């Protein structure tokens, strides 16, 4: 990694105006610190002592892990041979049994596990008993298809209860699921299927998004038909009927869920699996073009997921109604929708569609209808709601909300204050949770009944976790100074590797600081020791809380026949945190794309190649890119130009005149 701290990172502080042009933040009180109220403190799950109790972190995590149901209790806690950790490794358990069977056995079969709402307005209340019944039948279907422990299953689904059932059925039989976000293209899906060698794909005909059916099975069909010279590893495709859109059918390969699952036996014994048995692979963008398959295993992952969910959200499973708005295609949807709430026997809300369908009051109607008490969402969603204006949420009774969570990117203080005042009624504590696909579960967050909140800070490592902010050579930096965030000892839900790529695991996370985990984020600690995240220090962008790789988008652009060279940077954006901005040099003498059409064509090309989330906000066609004398593109300069900032030191740029040219083009493009 070169120049880890050279990239300027800043917390975006957008001035957001509502529909009437009123600057939302001007109606808000000044940011100050917020101590927990007496009332909250009186009922909270954990107190300040928990930090001291976690001083012996191995004993602490062992105690947390014992809240799970073990078939064979562990005697070993941590086996740390950097960079490989094993937790509770001689224990045996079953993730699905922990999420479902044990609650039903304890008499909670009639408790609602999922209050589901489809985008068109259809609803279902799925109890723990019903979910277990479906999962057992599905487990039998999977086994009938020859899926065994250790086999990989790709899941490409909308936000419906069957998706959670599919993940849990895989976990039950020890198959490793790889959920691929429904918005990804056929090519992205195929790359993930190939990398994992998936034998089965579970999908739906389509799901509802923005008032229309968004097709999924057609993407699976296209993915499997790509590269006819190189057939995929997939033997079967299991299809849930949801969108009722027209789809093609491959006899012998494709199966309808509704023709298989209800007719399978409802009897299924969950096998005991080793604590380190692989649970899932989740692909995430890295600094190179190829996404990496982050691998998580069972015991440690569940222990930290369940613990953080109970303490960070102060969960009361008997009375709370919890809602995590993340899609199951991302890590937040894995840990805090599919696993932790179920392991903790919580009742949760799951919503299929977008927040603006049929209008922007959708989320607030859901909060009101189900009496949501804990809401976990992303700053980008809060900023979108803020832009629409406070009158929309204020038209609803949100008084049930008692804890608000934020995840995915730094939350700017204006959005924090708006979230607290307008959504939380000035009462509900906000927990700003920092973590990653790789960390598996929350690593830093306030505890709502303990911590005095500072808007914009993720504050403290959760009990049992240790983080530090260091300079390039690994020395702790003084309070107030920016540095690199590291985890200086292992934690239970840490990634166990990059699927099929040990070298990449070592290079990405451990080559910088040896036995300390390098997170790829910049951060600083303030005088009180509270943590402030400053954004990525590598070539990973964060758009609406989703990680995108500059290299992956660049390779999609240069794969277009008209493009000679491309450079992609993240520019600050008031709505999405960062926005993708691309600079392209077109091939000479190419007539296939008219110059004025090139930006639209290339934006659509990226969306088709990777997925709509990667579509650049702007594509600037430029005659040349700023480069070093040795020919390396200097993205730092482009990032500064895209954000209207000072370009800084230009001594390494071989032809500084291109800077003014590009600046002129950006201005002309508007
Ligand atoms: C859970 C998740 C991880 C990256 C991470 C960081 C950013 C996440 C944050 C945050 C500031 C927070 N990030 N939470 N930055 N404050 N509370 O988002 O995982 O998709 O892997 O993204 O997101 O940059 O490195 P993932």
From TrEMBL:
Belongs to the ATP-dependent AMP-binding enzyme family. GO terms for biological process: acetyl-CoA biosynthetic process from acetate. PROSITE patterns: AMP_BINDING (PS00455). This is Acetate--CoA ligase. Residues 55-99 form the Acetyl-coenzyme A synthetase N-terminal domain. GO terms for molecular function: acetate-CoA ligase activity; AMP binding; ATP binding. Its EC number is 6.2.1.1. GO terms for cellular component: cytosol. The keyword ATP-binding applies. The keyword ATP-binding applies.
């Amino acid at each position: 990694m070169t120049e880890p701290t050279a990239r300027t990172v800043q917390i975006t502080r957008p001035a957001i105006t509502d529909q009437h042009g009123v600057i939302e933040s001007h109606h808000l009180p000044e940011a100050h610190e917020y101590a927990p109220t007496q009332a909250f403190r009186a009922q909270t799950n954990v107190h300040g002592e928990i930090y001291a109790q976690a001083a012996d972190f191995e004993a602490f995590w062992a105690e947390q892990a014992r809240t799970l149901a073990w078939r064979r209790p562990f005697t070993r806690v941590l086996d740390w041979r950097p960079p490989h950790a094993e937790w509770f490794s001689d224990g045996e358990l079953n993730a699905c049994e922990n999420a479902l069977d044990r609650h039903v056995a304890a008499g909670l079969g009639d408790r609602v596990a999922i209050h589901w709402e489809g985008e068109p307005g259809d609803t279902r209340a799925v109890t723990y008993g019903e979910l277990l019944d479906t999962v057992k039948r599905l487990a039998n279907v999977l086994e009938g298809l020859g899926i065994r422990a250790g086999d990989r299953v790709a899941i490409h689904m909308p936000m419906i209860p069957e998706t959670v059932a599919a993940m849990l059925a895989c976990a039950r039989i020890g198959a490793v699921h790889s959920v691929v976000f429904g918005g990804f293209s056929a090519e992205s899906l195929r790359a993930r299927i190939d990398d994992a060698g998936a034998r089965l794909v579970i999908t739906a005909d389509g799901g509802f998004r923005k008032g229309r059916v968004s097709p999924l099975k057609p993407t699976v069909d296209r993915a499997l038909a790509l590269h006819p010279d190189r057939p995929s590893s997939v033997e079967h495709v299991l299809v849930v009927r949801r969108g009722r859109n027209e789809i093609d059918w491959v006899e012998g390969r494709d199966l309808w869920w509704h023709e298989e699952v209800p007719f399978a036996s409802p009897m299924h014994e969950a096998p005991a699996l080793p604590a380190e048995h692989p649970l899932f692979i989740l692909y995430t963008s890295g600094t190179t073009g190829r996404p990496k398959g982050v691998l998580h295993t069972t015991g440690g992952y569940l222990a930290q997921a369940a613990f953080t969910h109970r303490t960070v959200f102060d969960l009361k499973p008997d009375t709370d109604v919890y809602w995590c708005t993340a899609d199951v295609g991302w890590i937040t949807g894995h840990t805090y929708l599919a696993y932790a709430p179920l392991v903790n026997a919580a009742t949760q809300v799951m919503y299929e569609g977008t927040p603006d369908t049929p209008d922007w009051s959708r989320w607030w109607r859901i909060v009101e209808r189900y009496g949501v008490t804990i809401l976990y969402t992303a700053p980008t969603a809060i900023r979108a709601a803020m832009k629409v204006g406070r009158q929309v949420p204020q038209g609803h009774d949100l008084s049930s909300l008692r804890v608000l969570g934020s995840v995915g990117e730094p939350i700017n203080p204006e959005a924090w204050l708006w979230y607290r005042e307008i959504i939380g009624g000035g009462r509900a504590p906000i927990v700003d949770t920092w973590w990653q696909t790789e960390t598996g579960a929350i690593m830093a967050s306030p505890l709502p009944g303990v911590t005095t909140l500072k808007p914009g800070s993720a504050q403290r490592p959760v009990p049992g976790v240790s983080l530090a902010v260091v300079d390039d050579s690994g020395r702790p930096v003084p309070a107030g100074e920016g540095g690199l965030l590291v985890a200086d000892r292992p934690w239970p839900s840490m990634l166990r590797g990059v699927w099929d790529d040990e070298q990449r695991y070592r290079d990405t996370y451990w080559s910088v600081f040896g036995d300390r985990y390098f997170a790829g984020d910049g951060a600083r600690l303030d005088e009180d020791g509270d943590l402030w995240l400053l954004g990525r220090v590598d070539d990973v962008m964060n758009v609406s809380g989703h990680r995108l790789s500059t290299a992956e988008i660049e390779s999609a652009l240069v794969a277009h026949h008209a493009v000679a060279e491309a450079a992609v940077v993240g520019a600050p954006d008031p709505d999405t945190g960062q926005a993708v901005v691309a600079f392209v040099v077109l091939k000479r003498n190419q007539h296939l794309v008219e110059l004025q059409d090139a930006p639209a064509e290339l934006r659509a090309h990226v969306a088709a190649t990777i997925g709509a989330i990667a579509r650049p906000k702007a594509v600037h066609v430029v005659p040349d890119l700023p480069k070093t004398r040795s020919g390396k593109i200097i993205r730092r300069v482009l990032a500064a130009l895209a954000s209207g900032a000072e370009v800084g030191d230009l001594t390494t740029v071989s032809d500084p005149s291109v800077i003014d040219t590009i600046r002129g083009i950006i201005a002309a493009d508007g």
